[in-house]
Design goal:
The structure is a homodimer. Chain A has about 220 residues and is mainly alpha-helical. Helix content of chain A is about 70%, strand content about 0%. The first copy, chain A, is elongated, with a radius of gyration of 21 Å. Chain A binds a DNA duplex (30 and 30 nucleotides) through helix 2 and helix 4.
Chain lengths: ~220, ~220
DNA sequence: ATAATTTTTTACGCATGAGTAGATTGCATG
DNA sequence: CATGCAATCTACTCATGCGTAAAAAATTAT
């Protein structure tokens, strides 16, 4: 009651006076509102999963942080497994998108690879990306686990493709594609474990630096 | 009963005829036998934790695999938290030992660093090392968690020390010590997630290869 | 043999947390 | 106005799995 009244009230007082702020939400606005709530649940869930671990976080905990009750979560998502699957799917979606954008880029194969790696590292320091890394397959139900693995395979394939292309155009050194992919991915996954969201250096800076180390190697040139 | 009889019997038939195989175990033999059982529990536990995840593995499951019952585990270890702490402590112990051995080695700083990194990667593909990587701090009770973190800090310190020394003697390129340590560790931790114990390539070969990639970097030289 | 000790078992208590049933409220629509 | 739908809550059920009490079996010592 009080929340909704307060909302209407603040809209009426809004100085910006946008075109006709009708108090009657349209179909689309309602859909968006619902979607926003669903997203808020996922955001709270993923943050708590990252902080305390999936198994140490009950849906009651998540609900409490949002000031709601557990059945409300079930109103937006099927069950705990689905909550987790949704979280990792979002993270993996960001990575897949990064791969697409990198492939569409100008420059050498190395340029595209490096652009992808930086973004890859960055995503892995973000809420949903971190969850992808911190979540072991075993945590998910068999069905979801298969989906999770498929998405991860997709990323791996994308990364290998970028490496192969860069080897092919001579912009990076010839190498074992598979092991190189694992090496680069591993190094850029690990910040999900040690980097804290409010850390001194922003994720992008760290990602750039790590990629530079990976590009140059630690031996003197 | 049957197990112990079989054991005595085989000892008697043993062609090597060691000095006086008395059926009465000495104090030390008893201690060793107990220790062996404790170790067997930990070995079974760590393998199951790695396969199915800590939280998906009940102590009843572990007991079942050993053909014993849960209270027997409690006779050798305090509780589930302690089982896990013991497992990761063993893994981290192996890493600390590796650091000591590497430091005692001949050659340049780079030689010592590389030797350590190879062994580090190897351990992380072994039962206990894998568990170290796959276990999030949150899984442990606060007290054990602090111990776990302290040991991990120790490894990190060791690794940074090796890097600094190698930079100091000019055998590797100048670099940001902290980020380089994280990069190398991350890349060599990751096999704990993808490498399967019975994989085609043995851990040592993979570790060597990864270290080589990290040493050279992916850009052409 | 018998007593003491160690090892192992059976059979529980108990807390936690996933998931659900059903009531309640508010809004929308015929 | 009544009926339906959406969102939310309270108050449960129920399975799982940690940890334990207490007895039984085996082993060692007296």
């Amino acid at each position: 009651m009080s929340r909704l009244h307060a909302h209407k009230f603040s809209v009426n007082l809004n100085r910006t006076m946008q075109p006709a702020p009708s108090p009657f939400p349209t179909q689309e606005e309602k859909r968006a509102a619902r979607e926003a709530k669903r997203a808020a649940v996922l955001r709270a869930a993923v943050q708590m999963f990252n902080e305390r671990g999936f198994h140490m976080t009950s849906l009651d905990d998540v609900a409490a942080r949002l000031g709601i009750s557990k059945p409300t979560i079930y109103h937006y998502l099927g069950n705990k497994d689905q909550v987790l699957l949704e979280c990792v799917s979002i993270g993996l979606g960001q990575l897949i998108e990064a791969a697409e954008q990198s492939r569409a880029r100008e420059g050498t194969g190395a340029d595209r690879l490096i652009a992808f790696l930086i973004r890859y590292g960055e995503v892995n320091m973000d809420d949903f990306g971190r969850c992808v890394i911190r979540t072991g397959d075993e945590a998910l139900a068999p069905e979801s686990r298969e989906r999770f693995r498929a998405l991860k395979r997709q990323i791996d394939t994308d990364l290998r493709g970028l490496i192969e292309a860069a080897v092919a155009d001579g912009s990076i050194a010839p190498c074992d594609i598979k092991l190189t992919a694992f090496t680069l991915a591993g190094a850029l996954n690990w910040p999900a474990r040690w980097h804290e969201p409010q850390g001194a250096l922003p994720g992008e800076v760290i990602a750039r630096h790590l990629v530079d180390i990976l590009a140059q190697g630690f031996l003197p040139r």
